[in-house]
Amino acid sequence: MNIAHHPDDATLASYAASCVELNFSQVLDMHIQHCCHCQQRINQAEQLGAALLNQMPEATIDPAVKANLFKLLDQPLDEKKSRAITKPDQQFERLPKYITNWEHTDPDQLPWKRMGPGVRYIPLASTRGKQFLLRIAPGTCLPAHGHQGNELTLVLSGSYSDEIGRFTPGCVADLDDRIDHQPIADRSEDCICLVASDAPLKFHGWAPRLFQSFFQI
After folding, report:
1. Would you say 191 and 168 are in contact if contact means Cβ atoms under 8 Å apart?
2. What is the pLDDT of residue 83?
3. Residue 14: which of 120, 150, 136 has the closest Cα?
4. Could you tell me which of 156, 160, 154, 145 has the C-alpha nearest to residue 200?
5. Cβ(91)–Cβ(25) under 8 Å?
């Protein structure tokens, strides 16, 4: 897999420190498992973080506070709290099976919802922010838009091009509120992407803005 576009270093550093929301982390999980470049960058970020921690002076902890902390750690978690905790290696598994096993998935069997001419989507459950599958028909151009927050888009199949470049399977578009673009799917096949965001898109045309509230993106 020839991956030309990666998450930026700040995103990878946050991922290494477990400081990204679950909807973003799941997108990154799928990219990183196929990307040696990002695996190396994360390893470097973890080594840098460890080196910085080793240089910090030791903190003085009140013995009573320390004893109380260990007492709390020894207490069993109730069932409700246990369900709320997700280990990093479980995040990937919380995505629908048809996404985690994408190479064996028939996209035509999925419950797509029509968004507009040549564009369909599937909203996905997420604890915070938005997460959805986006399917763009060959040659279809999305409305020009910007972003009010952060967005990660992972190409699962097909490809698209925009002002940034051409994105093929495995590539990630790491976007923020500085980016304005208008993606267009290549003409060879449908482009299907996994998208995570923490704020609505900022469409420039009145028609997309009118329908935006219906699709919650």
Report:
1. no
2. 36
3. 150
4. 145
5. yes
